[in-house]
Amino acid sequence: MERLSMSGISKRFGGIHALSDVSFSAQGGEVHALMGENGAGKSTLMKVLSGAYDHEGGEIRIDGNRASIHSPHEGMKLGVSIIYQEFSLASHMTVAENILMHELGEKFSINYRELNRRAARLLDEMGFSDIDPRSTVSDLTVAYQQVVEICKALSHECKILVLDEPTAVLTNHETEKLFRLVRKLRDQGVCVIYISHRLDEIFDLCNRVTILKDGSTVGTWDTNTLDHDSLTNLMIGRELTDFFPERNAKIGAVALEVQSLRSGSMVSDVSFSVRRGEVLGIGGLVGAGRTEALRAIFGADKRDGGTVTLHGQEVHNRTAGEGVRNRIGLLPEDRKHQGVLLDLPIRDNALMTPVNPFISVTGWINQASERDKVQELWKELRLKAASQDANVSTLSGGNQQKVALMKWLVAHCDVLLLDEPTRGVDVGAKVEIYRVINQLAEQGAAIVMVSSEMIELIGMCDRVMVMRGGRMAGTLEGDAIREENIIELAMGQDNVH
Amino acid sequence: MSTDTTTTTRGAKAPSESGQLSIVGLLIKYNIFIMLAALIVASSLLSEHFLTVQNGFNLLRQLVPLFLASIGMLLVILTGGIDLSVGSLAAIGGMAVAMLMPAMPFEGAIALICCVLLAISAGALLGAMNGIMVAKFNMAPFVVTLAMMTMARGLAYMLTNGQPVRFDRELSTAQILKTFGSKGLPWLGIPWPIVMIAVIIVVFILILRRTSYGRMTVATGSNETAVRLAGLPVARYKFLAYTICGGLSALAGIVVTSRTSVGTPVTGMALELDAIAACVIGGALLSGGKGSVTNTVIGVLILGLIGNIMNLMSVPAYPQQIIKGAIIILAVLLQGLGNRDAKI
Fold first, then answer.
1. Chains A, B: CB contacts under 8 A, how many?
2. Pick from A338, A339, A342: which is nearest to B12 by CB?
């Protein structure tokens, strides 16, 4: 009998189908990989399983019994535990307090000796007797914090353990330790569901793999019947549609040139150049340092090395303000928290730039001409909103993104760094954003676009640079911009065909 | 129209649709105006003396220090901070002007202007210290200004060993200050402090609406990360808010001294709490990004009228505090209802 069986699961966010009629099953005593591109629905499916999301239609069975899970607490009671990339640990409390947290609230007084003893036993069973249950969680390495998180899940009955990209933040050595732990749990009969982008890990660790694509199940295979190539092809398997509008941009002189850029721990060696009228894509896995590279070029993060040349002149942006004065604009990946002021009107959002021709030296705003300019951009970008005074929160995702772009057009930025510009917007809005990007390129802007969606990189970009581990893994041009090549570069396979 | 609201995420406030404003919606939207009107009606019914010009002037004149502190507080609250030191800085301002006047080498209007400017600068300087701690060193505003509240009050006591500062009332400088505090315009007899506060209110309304500093101050409180990533100097907006708040607080203390002709270190006790209350009644969000000068002014008037009404009804002082607290809760509750209404 299957330990877990989910069938006919659907989930919509607004008008977007995140999951449609997905079926997924896994057994006790196996490590089952769940794979797919970003946005394929892996995390959504697991959130449905945990009870963080409600599902529409379909049913979940655990050990053959129909399970009704409507909150993470109910999920936990049925033995479902999920370890996310961001841990849910109380970082200022001790290891033991975290592992046995659910018991802390049940008793009036706490016997710390007993608590520490039991936590130590659990850690010992997992092969991590070197973690002191009395130490503070924030003092541990990320890998050990993950172990604590897993032990916390195991402290109550755990039948199904979901690991969401657990190795993204781990070193090789730490990964090995984690794998030993996962195998141990598998041998104890736990059903482990493993989400990862790293093909090697899948073949190393997992018995079976289920592939999701655009919110539907592609199928389930035994891993020993697959190899790297066939797995990659199964994940792609889609035609490039005429999703992407024509672009007739004249490619001009080099606008931005970056050489051996270093910044923090995430960007160690990045070089590229982009010309006027050109759209350069940056592909790679989450955590490859793409966002950080853009931020360092813009000036939002400190640059530790390398040069940035704009229109032939070397510049050093130490703050975002200097970046804007050098006419670079950055569209951040997290639109709602970094890109726009949700609770303020469109006009205030468009004004939000240090290079604003409608503000005199005294700070006084020329409201009439500012209104005219916003009106002009409004038409140009085909914005859909009630009025200039409408709060940005009332707009759809695509229109919010247009508002976030407005300020850079007010400031005459001609090098635009776009970080996941179409994240979290529906298909129609995506096409609109592509149209705007094309329009800007046609007007002579140089565009750098980070994207995790293969199809977007292929459809939109003149060239694609792929990053891996903070370095440039390679650049693809013309016909070489294909999904398999991007994936191979991003994941570190050298057998590019 | 209603489909728009379903697409907005949790956390983001749903739009209030202009097309479907019901009477209840209007009542909630303009709740502070209605509350103010109700208080005025109630007061005039309770006492025939209430709706006289003289009573109006008296009431407003008493409220001038609170107006000043509340406007300063509003700037800070808009950035998402809080300033607990305004009462203590008012004491510093009131003391400073009282001590400086006799110490000036010359007398008269010019001397007074110098004294006032110096006293305001003292407040602004201490406010700037708050600003540096918050904006540059990323310390929690509550903690920084709590420390400043204690230190500035201590300084005020230390200056004269806890004694009130009396100054020679025959001094022409002091006489001009007294005239400012007690007399008014020849025309209609509007008291000078009221003229001054009217000008200041208009200036700050314009600053917040029509200058980039004002609008970006609001933007900073609304979403600091977005403003920083837009390349704007977030730290400067915060620093200026605390500095201006310090200066306005000192001016509040000077106004108190002008009325009483004595500078005391107990000036402005709990002024910060009334100022916060006025902002909150006026609909400002303590998390920043929302609030207006006009509404804060109404918040001050509501607080003042509550006191006035209870005095007219001869409610003793202690129950007055309980009623005041209850009205603050009521005002904020009404605003909460308004927001919840929009979320549906």
1. 104
2. A342
Is A212 in the same domain as A264?
no
Going from the C-alpha of B315 to that of each of A27, A264, B48, B49, B63, the distances in angstroms are: 74, 64, 18, 17, 20
Q: Is residue A293 part of a domain?
A: yes
For residue B18, being part of any structural domain is answered with no
ipTM of the complex: 0.77
Closest residue of chain B to A345, computed from CA coordinates: B219
Please report residues of B whose CB lies closer than 8 A to that of A406: none
Residue pointed to by tokens 């749990």: A185
Inside any domain, residue A243 = no
Question: Distance between CA atoms of A476 and A239, rounded to whole angstroms?
Answer: 19
- The answer to whether A341 contacts B227, with C-beta atoms less than 8 Å apart, is yes
- Give the Cα separation of A484 and B94 in Å (integer): 75
Which residue from B6, B13, B232 is facing A343, i.e. has the nearest CB? Answer: B13
Got the DSSP string for A291-314? HHHHHHHHTSS---EEEEEETTEE
* Nearest CB to A14; choose among B6, B18, B218: B6
Question: B247-304 pLDDT, tens per residue?
Answer: 999 999 999 999 998 999 999 999 999 999 999 999 899 999 999 999 999 999 999 9
Handedness of CA B234, B239, B242, B245 (dihedral sign): negative
Tokens linked to B288? 């920043």
pTM (global) more than 0.80: no
Q: What is the mean pLDDT of chain A?
A: 87
Confirm whether A248 is domain-assigned.
no
By residue range, what is the domain housing residue A65?
A: 4-236
Based on the structure, what is the number of domains in chain B?
1
Q: Which comes out higher in pLDDT, residue A227 or A7?
A: A7
Tokens of A77: 């009671």
DSSP assigned state of A45:
H
Backbone angles phi, psi at B53, to 5 degrees: -60, -40
Instruction: With cut-offs at 50, 70 and 90, classify the pLDDT of residue B11.
Output: very low
| Distance (Å, whole) CA A493 – CA A380 | 43
Query: Inter-chain contact B229–A353, Cβ cutoff 8 Å?
Result: no
Q: What are phi and psi of A258, to 5 degrees?
A: -115, 130
pLDDT tens figures, A68-114 = 888 888 888 889 988 876 677 888 889 999 998 877 777 778 888 98
Those residues whose C-beta lies under 8 Å from the C-beta of residue A360, and which sit 6 or more positions away, are A366
Q: Name the DSSP class of B242.
A: H
A140 and A14 together in one domain: yes
Asked if the model's pLDDT at residue B13 lies above 60, the reply is no
Show residues of chain B in contact with A343, CB under 8 Å. 12-13, 222, 289-290
